[in-house]
């Protein structure tokens, strides 16, 4: 006769409540230590830098066109995002962005757009001025040296956008011997996108065509446009570079760090002021 209290293998065993709660709690606690990243990988900690996509390789040396594709491999969305961010002169970059290669698509097209806009606004202002002085349409004469303005603006804007960052990069690399040196294209990109902040000054300069008969007001508007563009673009450049200098000189003591940053910021402010005065002469005549 079989034991009535014997439990077969296929019968369900019900554990007491305190054991069930204990096992459930243990399993729940073990799941707390696991975090999931956005790329569906499992990790024990989170990183502040977003997961980067696999880097493309560009074969060939400096004498190959394929070598320079990396500087123009930028999507339309990324380009407009960079333009949008640059509209705030006080915006900063993420620290890891200083070690990424900057694009040259923006420096070329942003600078070209600014040259066209300054030329167009200057020509339109001259047209308004001539219309205001003429008594009938036959007397309208526009005195604009188109080739001189275009050539001077190309030399001025492209020269400043590419030359000053190159000199800064060379000083940091060969004189100060900075360890974590940002790529040259990153400095060029910072200067180029800051040129977008000259757009409000260029558009505002159109109204000087309505003040041609008031020399004092015309002069005030010209200098106001130059001051506006100089301050906005200068703030955009110096804020980002000041952020970068604090990163690369962070290992120095406070006094040496302050000395290096103040010296570099002062030296960068001088050519920017000279650039603003050169824009005044190129588009608005003599000082």
Automatic annotation (TrEMBL):
GO terms for molecular function: small GTPase binding. GO terms for biological process: vesicle-mediated transport. The chain crosses the membrane at residues 104-125, 146-170, 190-211, 223-241, 261-283. Coiled coil: none annotated. InterPro entries: Yip5/YIPF1/YIPF2. PANTHER family: PROTEIN YIPF (PTHR12822:SF2). It comes from Dekkera bruxellensis (Brettanomyces custersii). One of its GO terms (cellular component) is Golgi apparatus. This is Protein YIP. It comes from the Eukaryota. The keyword Calcium does not apply.
